[in-house]
Predict the structure.
Amino acid sequence: MLLGLSGMNQDSQISFEAIDSSQAGDGGVENGALLSRLCEAMFYEDADDLASVRDDVIEIAGAEVLVDAVAVSANFYMMTRIADGTGTPLDAGTVEPSAEIRELVGVNNFTSRR
Amino acid sequence: MVVPRLGMAAYATELPIRPDLDASHSEIAARWAATGSWWSGMERIAIVGEVRRARDSEVLPPWESPSQVDGLVAENHLLPTAAVDAIWRITNHPGTLTAEWHASIMSRGISPEAYVELVGVVAQANAVDRFADALNLARVDLPEPSSVEPLRLADSSTAVTSHWVPTAQVKGPNVVKALSAVPFEVDSMSLLSSAQYVQLGDLLGDLVSDQNSLTRMQVEVIAGRTSKLNECFY
């Protein structure tokens, strides 16, 4: 949802493709598909895939981007576990504004919905 | 709570890890070894060790607990088996957690506040180790734990209102409120999030500024993709 708000604040034409899959496109975000691919490699932890995408990120965007992107993704291994481990409900003010986005991104069928 | 400053780099690498990011991981490791509100320093380090064992072992299906598998949890384990089972499940299958599962862990003798502290440490360890693993770095060393016993004092002002766990009356996003029964873990979460994501004050207050080498939209693509991969509805 913050992607949508950030895009609106910058008058950018963005979509949620890169959140859906690295195969779906950049979604209007610079290197969106590449960063999405990095997230997928971190999640599935295949050593060859990780090494390959690390090389690609360094070549295309630089080593600083690789480190910062890995740090952001890793942070959400913390946030998701806090939210799911404590039964955290959606914030009151976000339920309605995020309804369409949740549908688009396809999270409504997750077990963690509550 | 006393947290010893280690003053050592968390990582030895040629990768350009920002000093504040490296320092945050060193400080988090020191905080793991400190006496908690409900768990001792030895127990907190054991929690991190169990996260690592859960991640490095062959993944069990979500319906199977490590305590049900012969030989997987030592009889003299420092942690209660309910805690070990919770650590493995939160680490490997966070998207499958339900209120019934949480209630079953509570019914095995873990106090609500101790569970909150455990979730905080487990979540931090998952973040810090995932960072190191993804960059093919050695994971942060675990410091010597404090020998001081925790006070285990419940805050009577917390209550179960919106989450499965007791929370304090604090403002901010529900995910920040989630650990509020154990303020030390809120501080640890903020420390990591500020170094790895955005300053909590900028979460909604500044949606356009770059965050280090990334644009804010790139940051949110990564956040959204990672949350979806982890099947997190929040």
DSSP finds eight helices and no strands in chain B.
